[in-house]
Amino acid sequence: MADVTSFVVTVDWTAGMATVAIHGDLDSGTSALLTERLSWIMESRPRQLVLDLAGVGDRFSEQALAVIAAARQQLPPDSLLDVCSASATVRRHLDIAELSPVRVSDVPGDLRPAWAGHGSWHR
């Protein structure tokens, strides 16, 4: 029996914040699928998008960076993009690429919805 690559994306919505958890091999085919799924999420205009990369292996750092860049491009200008649980390689490339505004954290639990509800942003 041939190996079957598993790829799972879960989306959780809370108070204007969409958390997208990615698990599995992020190859060219799954990257395209994920980018399509992100387009669907962007239609709802989240105030904050969290990409949880805990389930993405280090060997897929190039594809992860492409997905992060596509997400930043699709988000409304006043929305925040948070990347959490990224590998050291992805973090290093994010520093070099200077994608802004992108906030990087260790785990999704470190993040809270950024919209205060009274016209201000906080972190």
Topology:
Blueprint: E1 7-14, E2 17-24, H1 28-42, E3 48-55, H2 61-74, E4 80-84, H3 88-97, E5 102-105
Parallel strand pairs: 2-3, 3-4, 4-5
Antiparallel strand pairs: 1-2
Helix pairs in contact: 1-2, 2-3
Q: Per CATH, what is the topology?
A: Transcription Regulator spoIIAA
What is the rounded distance between the termini?
49 Å
Give the overall silhouette. Answer: globular
Oligomer: single chain
The overall pLDDT average reads: 79
Radius of gyration: 14 Å
Q: Tell me the count of domains.
A: 1
**Helical percent range?**
25-40%
In CATH, the architecture is 2-Layer Sandwich
Task: Supply the helix-strand structural class.
Answer: alpha/beta
Determine the strand fraction and express it as a percent band: 25-35%
> What's the CATH class label?
Alpha Beta
Low-confidence stretches: 114-123
Largest sheet: 5 strands, mixed
- Which strand order do you get reading across the main beta sheet? 1-2-3-4-5
Q: Please trace the helix and strand order, writing H or E for each element.
A: EEHEHEHE
Classified in CATH, the superfamily is STAS domain
Q: How many alpha or pi helices?
A: 3
Descriptive account of the structure:
The chain has one domain: Transcription Regulator spoIIAA. The chain contains three helices and five strands, in the order ββαβαβαβ. The protein is globular. The C terminus is likely disordered. The longest helix has 15 residues. With 123 residues, the chain is α/β, with parallel strands linked by helices. Helix 1 runs parallel beside helix 2 and helix 2 packs across helix 3. It has a five-stranded mixed beta sheet with strand order 1-2-3-4-5, covered by helices on one side.
